[in-house]
Structure prediction request, 484 residues.
Amino acid sequence: MEENNRNKIILEHRQGEALNTESLNVNGGKKLFLESYGCQMNFSDSEIVASILNKEGYSTTTNFEDADLIFLNTCSIRENAENKVRQRLQDFKKIKKHKPSALVGVLGCMAERLKTKFLEEEKIVDLVVGPDAYRDLPQLIEVAEGGQKAVNVILSKEETYADITPVRVGSNGVSAFISITRGCDNMCSFCVVPFTRGRERSRKPVSIVAEAQNLFEEGYREVTLLGQNVDSYLWSGGGLKKEVLTEEQRRNSVNFAQLLEQVALVSPLLRVRFSTSHPKDMTDEVLKVIAKYDNICKYIHLPVQSGSTRVLERMNRGYSREWYLDRIAAIRRIIPNCGISTDIITGFCGETEEDHKETLSLMEAVKYDFAYMFAYSERPKTLAERKFEDDIPEEIKKRRLTEVVTLQRTHSAYRTSEGVGQTMEVLIEGISKKSNDMLSGRNSQNTVVVFPKENFSKGEYVSVNVERCTTSTLIGKVHGKNVE
Ligand code: SAH
Ligand code: SF4
Ligand code: F3S
Prediction:
Protein backbone atom coordinates (compact mmCIF):
# COMPACT_ATOMS: atom_id res chain seq x y z
CA MET A 1 0.00 0.00 0.00
CA GLU A 2 1.39 3.37 -0.94
CA GLU A 3 2.23 5.03 2.33
CA ASN A 4 1.48 8.67 1.96
CA ASN A 5 1.47 10.31 5.33
CA ARG A 6 3.47 13.31 4.17
CA ASN A 7 0.63 14.30 1.93
CA LYS A 8 -2.18 14.91 4.30
CA ILE A 9 -5.20 16.20 2.51
CA ILE A 10 -8.15 18.07 3.75
CA LEU A 11 -11.23 16.32 2.58
CA GLU A 12 -13.65 18.53 0.79
CA HIS A 13 -17.25 17.93 0.05
CA ARG A 14 -17.63 17.35 -3.65
CA GLN A 15 -20.20 19.33 -5.55
CA GLY A 16 -23.13 17.30 -6.73
CA GLU A 17 -23.37 15.45 -3.46
CA ALA A 18 -25.54 18.04 -1.86
CA LEU A 19 -26.66 17.14 1.60
CA ASN A 20 -30.08 15.91 2.34
CA THR A 21 -31.73 19.12 3.57
CA GLU A 22 -34.12 17.30 5.84
CA SER A 23 -31.34 15.83 7.89
CA LEU A 24 -29.50 19.13 7.70
CA ASN A 25 -32.43 20.86 9.40
CA VAL A 26 -32.78 18.14 11.97
CA ASN A 27 -29.13 18.43 12.92
CA GLY A 28 -28.86 22.15 12.52
CA GLY A 29 -26.27 21.91 9.71
CA LYS A 30 -23.30 20.76 11.74
CA LYS A 31 -19.86 20.84 10.21
CA LEU A 32 -17.20 18.16 10.03
CA PHE A 33 -13.50 18.74 9.49
CA LEU A 34 -11.82 15.46 8.52
CA GLU A 35 -8.10 15.13 7.89
CA SER A 36 -6.47 11.86 6.83
CA TYR A 37 -2.98 10.51 7.34
CA GLY A 38 -1.34 7.27 6.23
CA CYS A 39 -2.12 4.90 3.39
CA GLN A 40 -4.79 4.86 0.70
CA MET A 41 -6.85 2.54 2.88
CA ASN A 42 -7.19 5.33 5.44
CA PHE A 43 -8.23 7.82 2.77
CA SER A 44 -10.75 5.31 1.53
CA ASP A 45 -12.04 4.81 5.10
CA SER A 46 -12.47 8.56 5.46
CA GLU A 47 -14.92 8.38 2.55
CA ILE A 48 -16.91 5.80 4.53
CA VAL A 49 -16.84 8.06 7.59
CA ALA A 50 -17.98 11.05 5.50
CA SER A 51 -20.79 8.93 4.11
CA ILE A 52 -21.97 7.82 7.57
CA LEU A 53 -21.88 11.38 8.91
CA ASN A 54 -23.42 12.80 5.75
CA LYS A 55 -26.51 10.73 6.57
CA GLU A 56 -26.48 12.31 10.03
CA GLY A 57 -26.65 15.74 8.42
CA TYR A 58 -23.04 16.81 8.65
CA SER A 59 -21.46 18.80 5.86
CA THR A 60 -17.68 18.98 5.55
CA THR A 61 -15.55 22.05 5.97
CA THR A 62 -11.91 22.71 5.10
CA ASN A 63 -11.57 25.15 7.99
CA PHE A 64 -11.27 23.45 11.37
CA GLU A 65 -12.15 26.70 13.16
CA ASP A 66 -15.68 26.42 11.71
CA ALA A 67 -16.13 22.78 12.62
CA ASP A 68 -18.37 21.18 15.23
CA LEU A 69 -16.51 17.91 14.78
CA ILE A 70 -12.77 17.73 14.18
CA PHE A 71 -11.66 14.25 13.12
CA LEU A 72 -8.16 13.00 12.40
CA ASN A 73 -7.93 9.64 10.65
CA THR A 74 -4.54 8.52 11.88
CA CYS A 75 -1.59 6.26 10.99
CA SER A 76 0.75 4.30 13.27
CA ILE A 77 3.12 2.82 10.73
CA ARG A 78 6.20 4.72 11.95
CA GLU A 79 6.85 6.85 15.02
CA ASN A 80 6.97 9.93 12.83
CA ALA A 81 3.46 9.33 11.53
CA GLU A 82 2.20 9.36 15.13
CA ASN A 83 4.21 12.45 16.04
CA LYS A 84 2.58 14.40 13.24
CA VAL A 85 -0.86 13.64 14.64
CA ARG A 86 0.17 14.67 18.15
CA GLN A 87 1.50 17.95 16.79
CA ARG A 88 -1.67 18.55 14.85
CA LEU A 89 -3.75 18.04 17.99
CA GLN A 90 -1.96 21.03 19.52
CA ASP A 91 -3.50 23.26 16.83
CA PHE A 92 -6.96 22.34 18.05
CA LYS A 93 -6.39 23.42 21.66
CA LYS A 94 -7.20 27.06 21.00
CA ILE A 95 -10.43 26.13 19.18
CA LYS A 96 -11.67 24.36 22.24
CA LYS A 97 -11.14 27.61 24.17
CA HIS A 98 -13.39 29.78 22.03
CA LYS A 99 -15.78 26.99 21.01
CA PRO A 100 -16.03 24.54 23.93
CA SER A 101 -18.79 22.53 22.21
CA ALA A 102 -16.43 21.48 19.38
CA LEU A 103 -15.51 17.80 19.62
CA VAL A 104 -12.13 16.32 18.70
CA GLY A 105 -12.03 12.70 17.55
CA VAL A 106 -9.14 10.42 16.71
CA LEU A 107 -9.94 7.65 14.22
CA GLY A 108 -7.97 4.91 12.51
CA CYS A 109 -4.79 3.06 13.37
CA MET A 110 -3.46 5.25 16.16
CA ALA A 111 -6.84 5.13 17.88
CA GLU A 112 -6.77 1.35 17.66
CA ARG A 113 -3.19 1.08 18.92
CA LEU A 114 -3.52 3.42 21.88
CA LYS A 115 -7.18 2.86 22.81
CA THR A 116 -8.18 4.60 26.07
CA LYS A 117 -4.56 5.56 26.68
CA PHE A 118 -5.15 8.28 24.12
CA LEU A 119 -7.60 9.97 26.44
CA GLU A 120 -5.02 10.05 29.23
CA GLU A 121 -2.21 11.23 26.98
CA GLU A 122 -4.07 13.89 25.00
CA LYS A 123 -6.68 15.59 27.16
CA ILE A 124 -8.14 17.43 24.19
CA VAL A 125 -9.47 14.21 22.63
CA ASP A 126 -13.20 13.41 23.11
CA LEU A 127 -13.63 10.37 20.85
CA VAL A 128 -11.35 7.42 20.07
CA VAL A 129 -12.68 5.24 17.26
CA GLY A 130 -10.96 2.24 15.68
CA PRO A 131 -11.18 1.36 11.96
CA ASP A 132 -13.92 -1.27 12.37
CA ALA A 133 -16.21 0.89 14.53
CA TYR A 134 -17.30 3.65 12.15
CA ARG A 135 -20.92 2.49 12.01
CA ASP A 136 -21.06 3.35 15.70
CA LEU A 137 -20.01 6.99 15.11
CA PRO A 138 -23.52 8.54 15.45
CA GLN A 139 -23.95 6.93 18.89
CA LEU A 140 -20.41 7.81 19.96
CA ILE A 141 -20.93 11.44 18.95
CA GLU A 142 -24.09 11.52 21.03
CA VAL A 143 -22.19 10.25 24.05
CA ALA A 144 -19.45 12.84 23.53
CA GLU A 145 -22.03 15.63 23.08
CA GLY A 146 -23.40 14.60 26.46
CA GLY A 147 -20.02 15.47 27.96
CA GLN A 148 -18.55 11.97 28.29
CA LYS A 149 -15.54 10.55 26.55
CA ALA A 150 -16.53 8.03 23.84
CA VAL A 151 -14.44 5.03 22.81
CA ASN A 152 -15.03 2.12 20.44
CA VAL A 153 -11.95 0.18 19.35
CA ILE A 154 -13.52 -3.23 18.82
CA LEU A 155 -12.01 -5.01 15.85
CA SER A 156 -14.28 -7.15 13.73
CA LYS A 157 -13.75 -10.35 11.78
CA GLU A 158 -16.56 -9.49 9.35
CA GLU A 159 -16.86 -5.73 8.88
CA THR A 160 -16.14 -4.64 5.29
CA TYR A 161 -18.57 -1.66 5.06
CA ALA A 162 -19.74 -3.39 1.86
CA ASP A 163 -23.16 -1.73 1.88
CA ILE A 164 -21.95 1.83 2.52
CA THR A 165 -21.50 3.97 -0.57
CA PRO A 166 -18.46 6.14 0.11
CA VAL A 167 -18.80 9.88 -0.34
CA ARG A 168 -16.00 10.64 -2.82
CA VAL A 169 -14.56 13.59 -0.95
CA GLY A 170 -11.49 15.35 -2.33
CA SER A 171 -11.76 13.30 -5.53
CA ASN A 172 -10.82 14.51 -9.00
CA GLY A 173 -13.98 12.86 -10.34
CA VAL A 174 -11.89 10.53 -12.53
CA SER A 175 -10.19 8.07 -10.12
CA ALA A 176 -11.62 6.37 -7.05
CA PHE A 177 -10.56 3.78 -4.49
CA ILE A 178 -12.51 0.59 -3.78
CA SER A 179 -11.53 -1.44 -0.69
CA ILE A 180 -11.60 -5.18 -1.41
CA THR A 181 -10.07 -6.55 1.79
CA ARG A 182 -9.54 -5.19 5.29
CA GLY A 183 -6.97 -6.19 7.89
CA CYS A 184 -3.90 -8.36 7.41
CA ASP A 185 -2.97 -11.88 8.50
CA ASN A 186 0.68 -11.73 7.57
CA MET A 187 2.53 -10.64 10.67
CA CYS A 188 5.63 -9.17 9.06
CA SER A 189 7.78 -8.69 12.14
CA PHE A 190 8.27 -4.90 11.71
CA CYS A 191 4.65 -4.08 11.04
CA VAL A 192 1.94 -2.67 13.28
CA VAL A 193 -0.91 -3.08 10.76
CA PRO A 194 -2.13 -6.53 11.94
CA PHE A 195 -2.58 -4.96 15.40
CA THR A 196 -4.33 -1.82 14.21
CA ARG A 197 -6.46 -3.33 11.47
CA GLY A 198 -7.17 -6.83 12.74
CA ARG A 199 -7.75 -10.05 10.84
CA GLU A 200 -7.93 -10.16 7.10
CA ARG A 201 -11.38 -10.37 5.54
CA SER A 202 -12.52 -10.14 1.94
CA ARG A 203 -15.47 -8.17 0.69
CA LYS A 204 -18.25 -9.77 -1.33
CA PRO A 205 -17.39 -9.62 -5.07
CA VAL A 206 -20.85 -8.46 -6.20
CA SER A 207 -20.61 -5.39 -3.97
CA ILE A 208 -17.17 -4.57 -5.41
CA VAL A 209 -18.30 -4.96 -9.02
CA ALA A 210 -21.47 -2.94 -8.32
CA GLU A 211 -19.39 -0.12 -6.82
CA ALA A 212 -17.13 -0.10 -9.89
CA GLN A 213 -20.17 -0.08 -12.18
CA ASN A 214 -21.76 2.84 -10.30
CA LEU A 215 -18.54 4.82 -10.39
CA PHE A 216 -18.28 4.25 -14.13
CA GLU A 217 -21.85 5.43 -14.64
CA GLU A 218 -21.09 8.57 -12.59
CA GLY A 219 -18.25 9.37 -15.00
CA TYR A 220 -15.26 7.88 -13.18
CA ARG A 221 -12.72 6.26 -15.47
CA GLU A 222 -10.30 4.59 -13.06
CA VAL A 223 -10.69 2.47 -9.93
CA THR A 224 -7.94 1.26 -7.60
CA LEU A 225 -8.72 -1.94 -5.72
CA LEU A 226 -7.24 -1.68 -2.23
CA GLY A 227 -6.01 -4.21 0.30
CA GLN A 228 -2.89 -4.77 2.42
CA ASN A 229 -2.30 -7.88 0.33
CA VAL A 230 -4.67 -7.96 -2.64
CA ASP A 231 -3.32 -11.33 -3.79
CA SER A 232 -4.76 -13.04 -0.73
CA TYR A 233 -8.28 -11.87 -1.62
CA LEU A 234 -10.64 -14.85 -1.41
CA TRP A 235 -14.42 -14.83 -1.24
CA SER A 236 -15.86 -18.16 -0.30
CA GLY A 237 -19.37 -17.23 0.67
CA GLY A 238 -18.64 -15.44 3.90
CA GLY A 239 -15.55 -15.23 5.97
CA LEU A 240 -14.23 -18.79 5.55
CA LYS A 241 -10.46 -19.08 5.66
CA LYS A 242 -8.56 -20.81 2.88
CA GLU A 243 -7.23 -23.49 5.20
CA VAL A 244 -10.68 -24.79 6.16
CA LEU A 245 -12.28 -24.83 2.70
CA THR A 246 -13.54 -28.09 1.24
CA GLU A 247 -12.67 -28.90 -2.38
CA GLU A 248 -16.11 -27.78 -3.49
CA GLN A 249 -16.03 -24.51 -1.55
CA ARG A 250 -12.64 -23.82 -3.06
CA ARG A 251 -13.98 -24.36 -6.57
CA ASN A 252 -16.85 -21.97 -5.89
CA SER A 253 -14.79 -19.23 -4.36
CA VAL A 254 -13.54 -16.08 -6.07
CA ASN A 255 -9.81 -15.34 -5.94
CA PHE A 256 -8.02 -12.09 -6.79
CA ALA A 257 -7.38 -13.02 -10.43
CA GLN A 258 -11.09 -13.74 -10.91
CA LEU A 259 -12.16 -10.58 -9.10
CA LEU A 260 -9.79 -8.48 -11.21
CA GLU A 261 -11.29 -9.96 -14.34
CA GLN A 262 -14.85 -9.25 -13.16
CA VAL A 263 -13.97 -5.60 -12.48
CA ALA A 264 -12.14 -5.27 -15.81
CA LEU A 265 -15.29 -6.46 -17.59
CA VAL A 266 -17.36 -3.56 -16.20
CA SER A 267 -16.21 -1.51 -19.21
CA PRO A 268 -13.15 -1.38 -21.45
CA LEU A 269 -13.21 2.37 -20.70
CA LEU A 270 -12.72 1.83 -16.97
CA ARG A 271 -9.07 1.55 -15.98
CA VAL A 272 -8.36 -0.87 -13.16
CA ARG A 273 -5.44 -0.52 -10.73
CA PHE A 274 -4.74 -2.38 -7.49
CA SER A 275 -2.49 -2.12 -4.46
CA THR A 276 -0.68 -3.77 -2.69
CA SER A 277 0.63 -6.97 -4.28
CA HIS A 278 2.55 -9.37 -2.05
CA PRO A 279 5.55 -11.22 -3.53
CA LYS A 280 4.75 -14.44 -1.67
CA ASP A 281 1.16 -14.61 -2.98
CA MET A 282 1.27 -13.01 -6.45
CA THR A 283 0.46 -15.79 -8.93
CA ASP A 284 1.05 -16.14 -12.66
CA GLU A 285 -2.74 -16.42 -12.96
CA VAL A 286 -3.05 -12.81 -11.75
CA LEU A 287 -0.29 -11.69 -14.14
CA LYS A 288 -2.05 -13.37 -17.06
CA VAL A 289 -5.31 -11.56 -16.29
CA ILE A 290 -3.42 -8.24 -16.19
CA ALA A 291 -1.86 -9.06 -19.57
CA LYS A 292 -5.20 -10.11 -21.07
CA TYR A 293 -7.14 -6.86 -20.49
CA ASP A 294 -5.98 -3.56 -21.97
CA ASN A 295 -7.86 -1.65 -19.28
CA ILE A 296 -5.99 -3.34 -16.38
CA CYS A 297 -3.04 -1.01 -15.87
CA LYS A 298 0.39 -2.42 -16.51
CA TYR A 299 1.73 -1.38 -13.16
CA ILE A 300 2.52 -3.43 -10.05
CA HIS A 301 3.54 -2.17 -6.62
CA LEU A 302 5.53 -5.09 -5.21
CA PRO A 303 7.20 -4.18 -1.89
CA VAL A 304 10.50 -6.01 -1.40
CA GLN A 305 11.56 -4.43 1.95
CA SER A 306 15.11 -5.87 1.70
CA GLY A 307 17.33 -7.58 -0.87
CA SER A 308 18.85 -9.94 1.70
CA THR A 309 17.26 -13.33 2.32
CA ARG A 310 18.60 -13.31 5.88
CA VAL A 311 16.85 -10.01 6.63
CA LEU A 312 13.68 -11.10 4.83
CA GLU A 313 13.57 -14.14 7.09
CA ARG A 314 13.85 -11.98 10.19
CA MET A 315 11.16 -9.75 8.75
CA ASN A 316 8.93 -12.83 8.39
CA ARG A 317 8.06 -11.81 4.83
CA GLY A 318 7.62 -15.38 3.55
CA TYR A 319 9.97 -15.16 0.53
CA SER A 320 13.65 -15.09 -0.32
CA ARG A 321 15.64 -12.78 -2.60
CA GLU A 322 15.56 -15.50 -5.29
CA TRP A 323 11.81 -15.97 -5.00
CA TYR A 324 11.27 -12.22 -5.31
CA LEU A 325 13.50 -11.99 -8.39
CA ASP A 326 11.63 -14.92 -9.91
CA ARG A 327 8.37 -12.95 -9.47
CA ILE A 328 9.98 -9.95 -11.18
CA ALA A 329 11.07 -12.23 -14.03
CA ALA A 330 7.50 -13.56 -14.29
CA ILE A 331 6.15 -9.98 -14.54
CA ARG A 332 8.66 -9.10 -17.29
CA ARG A 333 7.83 -12.34 -19.15
CA ILE A 334 4.03 -12.19 -18.93
CA ILE A 335 3.52 -8.39 -18.99
CA PRO A 336 6.28 -6.79 -21.07
CA ASN A 337 6.40 -3.04 -20.44
CA CYS A 338 5.02 -3.26 -16.89
CA GLY A 339 5.82 -0.44 -14.46
CA ILE A 340 7.12 -1.81 -11.14
CA SER A 341 7.48 0.05 -7.84
CA THR A 342 8.44 -1.06 -4.35
CA ASP A 343 8.85 -0.28 -0.65
CA ILE A 344 12.24 -0.59 1.06
CA ILE A 345 13.21 -0.43 4.74
CA THR A 346 16.81 0.36 5.76
CA GLY A 347 18.41 -0.51 9.09
CA PHE A 348 16.10 -3.31 10.20
CA CYS A 349 17.31 -5.21 13.31
CA GLY A 350 20.60 -6.98 12.66
CA GLU A 351 21.03 -5.60 9.11
CA THR A 352 24.73 -5.79 8.22
CA GLU A 353 26.60 -3.73 5.63
CA GLU A 354 26.57 -6.89 3.48
CA ASP A 355 22.75 -7.15 3.76
CA HIS A 356 22.43 -3.48 2.81
CA LYS A 357 24.62 -4.04 -0.27
CA GLU A 358 22.29 -6.85 -1.27
CA THR A 359 19.39 -4.39 -1.19
CA LEU A 360 21.34 -2.05 -3.47
CA SER A 361 22.22 -4.90 -5.84
CA LEU A 362 18.61 -6.07 -5.99
CA MET A 363 17.58 -2.51 -6.86
CA GLU A 364 20.19 -2.54 -9.66
CA ALA A 365 18.79 -5.82 -10.95
CA VAL A 366 15.18 -4.59 -11.02
CA LYS A 367 15.59 -0.85 -11.72
CA TYR A 368 12.27 0.15 -10.18
CA ASP A 369 10.21 2.90 -11.75
CA PHE A 370 9.48 4.25 -8.30
CA ALA A 371 10.06 3.41 -4.62
CA TYR A 372 8.88 4.43 -1.16
CA MET A 373 11.88 4.21 1.15
CA PHE A 374 11.99 4.31 4.95
CA ALA A 375 14.39 4.00 7.87
CA TYR A 376 13.23 1.26 10.23
CA SER A 377 11.10 2.54 13.10
CA GLU A 378 10.42 0.11 15.93
CA ARG A 379 6.73 -0.28 16.73
CA PRO A 380 5.37 -1.42 20.07
CA LYS A 381 4.01 -5.00 20.34
CA THR A 382 5.31 -6.09 16.92
CA LEU A 383 7.25 -9.38 16.63
CA ALA A 384 10.47 -7.45 15.98
CA GLU A 385 10.01 -5.34 19.08
CA ARG A 386 9.55 -8.47 21.18
CA LYS A 387 12.20 -10.67 19.56
CA PHE A 388 15.02 -8.47 18.23
CA GLU A 389 17.07 -5.56 19.37
CA ASP A 390 16.67 -2.32 17.39
CA ASP A 391 20.45 -2.31 17.13
CA ILE A 392 21.27 -0.22 14.06
CA PRO A 393 22.24 3.31 15.14
CA GLU A 394 20.04 6.08 13.73
CA GLU A 395 22.89 7.62 11.70
CA ILE A 396 23.59 4.29 9.98
CA LYS A 397 19.90 3.76 9.18
CA LYS A 398 19.84 7.27 7.71
CA ARG A 399 23.08 6.84 5.74
CA ARG A 400 21.80 3.60 4.22
CA LEU A 401 18.49 5.28 3.45
CA THR A 402 20.33 8.09 1.64
CA GLU A 403 22.22 5.53 -0.43
CA VAL A 404 19.01 3.74 -1.35
CA VAL A 405 17.25 7.02 -2.21
CA THR A 406 20.18 8.24 -4.32
CA LEU A 407 20.30 5.01 -6.30
CA GLN A 408 16.54 4.99 -6.80
CA ARG A 409 16.68 8.53 -8.18
CA THR A 410 18.92 7.34 -11.02
CA HIS A 411 16.61 4.40 -11.73
CA SER A 412 13.46 6.55 -11.72
CA ALA A 413 15.11 8.99 -14.15
CA TYR A 414 16.21 6.08 -16.35
CA ARG A 415 12.74 4.51 -16.41
CA THR A 416 11.05 7.85 -17.15
CA SER A 417 13.48 8.55 -20.00
CA GLU A 418 12.53 5.23 -21.60
CA GLY A 419 9.13 6.79 -22.39
CA VAL A 420 10.59 9.56 -24.59
CA GLY A 421 9.81 8.96 -28.26
CA GLN A 422 6.90 6.65 -27.47
CA THR A 423 3.21 7.19 -28.14
CA MET A 424 1.03 6.24 -25.20
CA GLU A 425 -2.53 6.28 -23.98
CA VAL A 426 -3.15 8.78 -21.17
CA LEU A 427 -6.23 9.20 -19.01
CA ILE A 428 -6.62 12.92 -18.32
CA GLU A 429 -6.94 13.71 -14.61
CA GLY A 430 -7.00 17.52 -14.70
CA ILE A 431 -5.00 20.71 -15.11
CA SER A 432 -1.25 20.33 -14.65
CA LYS A 433 0.10 21.63 -11.33
CA LYS A 434 2.72 23.73 -13.08
CA SER A 435 0.66 25.43 -15.80
CA ASN A 436 -3.00 26.21 -16.49
CA ASP A 437 -2.36 25.69 -20.20
CA MET A 438 -1.31 22.09 -19.70
CA LEU A 439 -3.28 18.98 -18.79
CA SER A 440 -1.97 16.13 -16.70
CA GLY A 441 -2.77 12.43 -16.59
CA ARG A 442 -1.04 9.10 -16.27
CA ASN A 443 -0.09 6.35 -18.64
CA SER A 444 -0.85 2.72 -17.89
CA GLN A 445 2.51 2.36 -16.10
CA ASN A 446 1.46 5.10 -13.66
CA THR A 447 3.90 7.76 -14.90
CA VAL A 448 2.57 11.32 -15.03
CA VAL A 449 2.27 12.72 -18.56
CA VAL A 450 1.62 16.43 -19.29
CA PHE A 451 0.68 18.05 -22.61
CA PRO A 452 -0.96 21.24 -24.00
CA LYS A 453 -4.62 21.56 -23.11
CA GLU A 454 -6.16 22.33 -26.52
CA ASN A 455 -9.82 21.30 -26.27
CA PHE A 456 -9.36 18.19 -24.17
CA SER A 457 -10.85 17.70 -20.74
CA LYS A 458 -10.52 15.42 -17.75
CA GLY A 459 -11.87 11.90 -17.96
CA GLU A 460 -10.92 11.61 -21.65
CA TYR A 461 -8.37 9.18 -23.06
CA VAL A 462 -5.82 10.69 -25.42
CA SER A 463 -2.86 9.34 -27.32
CA VAL A 464 0.26 11.36 -26.51
CA ASN A 465 3.55 11.55 -28.41
CA VAL A 466 6.17 11.94 -25.69
CA GLU A 467 8.91 14.40 -26.70
CA ARG A 468 10.89 14.99 -23.52
CA CYS A 469 10.90 14.38 -19.77
CA THR A 470 11.99 15.52 -16.34
CA THR A 471 13.12 12.88 -13.80
CA SER A 472 9.54 11.84 -13.06
CA THR A 473 7.26 13.42 -15.68
CA LEU A 474 6.79 12.82 -19.40
CA ILE A 475 6.01 15.83 -21.60
CA GLY A 476 4.45 15.63 -25.07
CA LYS A 477 1.65 16.52 -27.46
CA VAL A 478 -1.66 14.87 -28.15
CA HIS A 479 -1.49 12.82 -31.28
CA GLY A 480 -5.11 11.75 -31.24
CA LYS A 481 -8.16 11.23 -29.11
CA ASN A 482 -8.53 7.56 -28.32
CA VAL A 483 -12.14 7.31 -27.40
CA GLU A 484 -15.08 9.55 -28.21
N1 SAH B 1 0.77 -4.18 3.14
C1 SAH B 1 1.85 -3.57 2.51
C2 SAH B 1 2.54 -2.50 3.33
C3 SAH B 1 1.82 -1.61 4.23
S1 SAH B 1 2.78 -0.50 5.15
C4 SAH B 1 2.88 -4.63 2.20
O1 SAH B 1 2.87 -5.71 2.68
O2 SAH B 1 3.79 -4.31 1.49
C5 SAH B 1 3.68 0.39 3.91
C6 SAH B 1 5.14 0.29 4.02
O3 SAH B 1 5.62 0.91 5.21
C7 SAH B 1 5.71 -1.12 4.10
O4 SAH B 1 5.79 -1.74 2.87
C8 SAH B 1 7.06 -0.89 4.71
O5 SAH B 1 8.04 -0.64 3.72
C9 SAH B 1 6.87 0.37 5.54
N2 SAH B 1 6.89 0.05 6.97
C10 SAH B 1 6.02 -0.72 7.65
N3 SAH B 1 6.38 -0.81 8.95
C11 SAH B 1 7.50 -0.07 9.09
C12 SAH B 1 8.36 0.21 10.19
N4 SAH B 1 8.13 -0.30 11.39
N5 SAH B 1 9.45 1.00 9.96
C13 SAH B 1 9.68 1.51 8.74
N6 SAH B 1 8.90 1.27 7.68
C14 SAH B 1 7.82 0.48 7.84
FE1 SF4 C 1 2.21 -5.18 7.33
FE2 SF4 C 1 3.20 -7.32 6.16
FE3 SF4 C 1 0.58 -7.04 6.40
FE4 SF4 C 1 1.91 -5.50 4.71
S1 SF4 C 1 1.70 -7.72 4.55
S2 SF4 C 1 0.36 -4.85 6.16
S3 SF4 C 1 3.83 -5.18 5.76
S4 SF4 C 1 2.02 -7.30 8.07
FE1 F3S D 1 -2.37 2.46 6.72
FE2 F3S D 1 -0.87 3.60 8.54
FE3 F3S D 1 -2.84 2.12 9.28
S1 F3S D 1 -0.16 2.76 6.66
S2 F3S D 1 -3.18 0.64 7.68
S3 F3S D 1 -2.98 4.02 8.14
S4 F3S D 1 -0.86 2.17 10.23
Remarks:
- The two ends are 33 Å apart (CA to CA).
- The chain has 17 helices and 22 strands.
- The first strand starts at residue 9 and ends at 10.
- Residues 306 and 312 are 6 Å apart (CA to CA).
